[in-house]
């Protein structure tokens, strides 16, 4: 029997808070896969070197988090259709010949958590996506595939939102979804069934970067961050009658998709999420 233990990591800055090692260790335990998974901190200007160093040490795969998802897509020789559409990657497969294959499982994880774990349908909904960086870029394609009726992409810099909308315009037309770009200064009349925060506001512990008028009674207010970083946004949602949810389920589900890509085995993500949610604190 092959006793080799394959090496994986999550690469980002900051990285100390990441739960990815615990998630992948539990996946490996439950599936019998022999892997080691660790956190790796890369300097803000040192992602490519960090990836090369990891590959040189025998690394087989790498998850990518803030702020490197767009750069990660550029480091790959081959990219999945999701990466080509988003211009961002969160899952890299490192091959023995030195080549890198990039994929993006963020949006798949987000859709799975909203529809399966939270039980909120995306089909036919009005959705507001806040932000136009790597996190939003990775989410937009799968959100369109999920059949939302209308998606408004709001960002501080309108040009970035417009560029992302333009990149997804053909898919939006194919899915018959109304897709438009907007600044964060949304009109008072604009309200949504689902509001997803993909901005960096949570990293600063802030609440929402948009007015509470975007929320309908019982709207799902979803922050892609998890734990203390998401608390400001979740508190804001609760104060205004929305249903708050952080991104822990997205984290687990995107990790499951990455694990499947790397190992060819789908881990029991719902079980692992339930275990994590049951942990105190």
Q: Give helix and strand order, one letter per element, not per position.
A: EHEHEHEHEEHEHEHHEEEHEHH
The largest pleated sheet is described as: 6 strands, mixed
Q: State mean pLDDT (0 to 100 scale).
A: 94
- Number of DSSP strands? 12
Helix fraction bin = 25-40%
Ranges with pLDDT <50 over ≥5 residues?
Answer: none
Shape: globular
Beta content = 15-25%
Distance between the termini: 40 Å
Number of helices: 11
> Compute the gyration radius: what is it?
18 Å
Major β-sheet strand ordering = 2-1-3-5-6-4
Question: By helix and strand content, what is the structural category?
Answer: alpha/beta
Please explain how this structure is put together:
With 281 residues, this protein is α/β, with parallel strands linked by helices. The protein contains 11 helices and 12 strands. Helix 1 packs across helix 10 and helix 5 crosses helix 6.
Quick description:
This protein is α/β, with parallel strands linked by helices. It is built from eleven helices and twelve strands.
Outline the fold blueprint.
Blueprint: E1 6-12, H1 20-31, E2 35-41, H2 47-56, E3 59-64, H3 69-74, E4 78-79, H4 81-86, E5 91-94, E6 100-103, H5 106-117, E7 126-130, H6 134-145, E8 150-155, H7 158-167, H8 169-175, E9 178-183, E10 192-197, E11 215-223, H9 231-239, E12 243-245, H10 248-263, H11 269-278
Parallel strand pairs: 1-2, 1-3, 4-6, 7-8, 7-10, 8-9, 10-11, 11-12
Antiparallel strand pairs: 3-5, 5-6
Helix pairs in contact: 1-10, 5-6, 5-10, 10-11
